[in-house]
Design goal:
By secondary structure, the chain is α/β, with parallel strands linked by helices. Helix content is 42%, strand content 17%. Helix 3 packs parallel to helix 4, helix 6 crosses helix 7 and helix 7 packs antiparallel against helix 8.
Length: 281
C-alpha cells in the first residue's frame, strides 16, 4: 500500500431498478472525490437521484488508457476514486480493467462494493444448473465468427451465460440452435428488474422460434443462459476435434471432419462448425 494514497472503489450500481443500489454504495459514491463512469450522462442521473454531487469523469473503452495517468495521480495524491459502469458490476463485459490493474501496480488499495450483476441475476432465475458456469459475455457480431465461437463451446459441460443486444438476439439464438442443437434448455432473461422484465425458459429451438415471432422479446437488455453439453456427448466432440485437427494436416477440412466423425462418433455438423473460415474448402 502506498502511504497517503487514496482508495479505488469498484462500485456496483443498479441494472434497472434504482432501488437495488446498496446503502454502502450510496455512502461511497457520496464521499469520493471522483467518480470514473462509463457514461457520465447516465451516471449523473443516478447520482442526482440520490442527491450526490461527486465530480464525474469519463472512463470507457475508447479513453481508458488516456485517463489512467490523471486517475492514478489523483489516487496517489490521496483522493478516493469510485469506478462505475452504466449498470451492474464494473469490468463484467464493461471497461475498467486497465484502471484496476494500474492501481494494483501502484500499490493503491482497491476495494469492492458488490451488488447487482446481470449475469448472476439471470442465472438465479434461469432454472438451469448454476453450480458450474462459464460467462462468455458478448459473442462476435458477425454470424460466421459467432458460429465459430459457439462451436468452440459445443463440448462445454458447464452452463453457458451470454450477453446479447436487442439487435442480434434473434440471429444469435438461431446460430446457437444450428451449432448446439434445438434440444438444450435455454433461458432468455430480458430487461431484468425493469418494468417489462421477462424470463422465458424453453428448449433452445423453441426459444429461438418464440423470440423470432414476438418483437417485444427483441427489445431491451438480454442475457441468455444455455445448459451445458451432456458429459456423454462432450467427450466424443473433444476427441473428434483432436482427430480432425490431425487429419487436416493431410486432407481437406470437410473430409477431415467427415472422417473424424466416423472414427470418434462426434457430430459431423459440430466438427464442421469448428473449422475456421479460412480453412474451409
Amino acid at each position: 500500500m502506498t502511504a497517503g494514497s487514496g482508495t479505488l472503489w469498484v462500485v456496483a450500481t443498479p441494472i434497472g431498478n434504482l432501488a437495488d443500489i446498496s446503502s454502502r454504495a450510496v455512502e461511497v459514491l457520496g464521499r469520493v472525490a471522483v467518480v470514473a463512469a462509463e457514461d457520465t450522462r447516465h451516471s449523473a442521473q443516478l447520482l442526482s437521484h440520490y442527491g450526490m454531487r461527486a465530480s464525474l469523469v469519463s472512463c470507457h473503452d475508447h479513453n481508458e488508457t488516456e485517463q489512467l495517468p490523471m486517475l492514478i495521480a489523483r489516487l496517489l495524491a490521496g483522493d478516493d476514486v469510485a469506478l462505475v459502469s452504466d449498470a451492474g458490476t464494473p469490468l463484467v463485459s464493461d471497461p475498467g480493467f486497465r484502471l484496476v490493474r494500474a492501481a494494483h501496480e501502484n500499490a493503491i488499495p482497491v476495494r469492492t462494493v458488490p451488488g447487482p450483476c446481470a449475469a448472476i441475476a439471470a442465472l438465479s432465475v434461469a432454472g438451469i444448473a448454476t453450480d458450474r458456469f462459464a460467462f462468455e459475455g458478448f459473442l462476435p457480431q458477425k454470424s460466421a465468427a459467432r458460429i465459430s465461437a459457439l462451436a468452440a463451446l459445443a463440448g462445454e459441460t458447464r452452463t453457458l451465460v451470454f450477453y446479447e443486444s436487442r439487435h442480434r438476439i434473434d440471429s444469435m439464438l438461431a446460430d446457437a440452435v444450428r451449432v448446439l442443437g434445438p434440444d438444450r434448455l435455454a433461458t432468455l432473461a430480458r430487461e431484468l428488474t425493469k418494468l417489462h422484465e421477462t424470463v422465458m425458459r424453453l428448449p433452445l429451438g423453441e426459444l429461438s422460434v418464440a423470440v423470432a415471432a414476438d418483437s417485444n422479446q427483441r427489445l431491451g437488455e438480454c442475457v441468455v443462459v444455455i445448459e451445458g453439453a451432456a458429459p456423454e456427448t462432450a467427450g466424443p466432440l473433444r476427441e473428434g476435434e483432436r482427430v480432425m485437427r490431425l487429419l487436416m494436416r493431410e486432407m481437406a477440412p470437410s473430409r477431415a471432419a467427415r472422417m473424424a466423425a466416423e472414427i470418434t462418433g462426434a457430430s459431423r455438423r459440430a466438427l464442421y462448425d469448428l473449422i475456421p473460415d479460412s480453412d474451409e474448402t
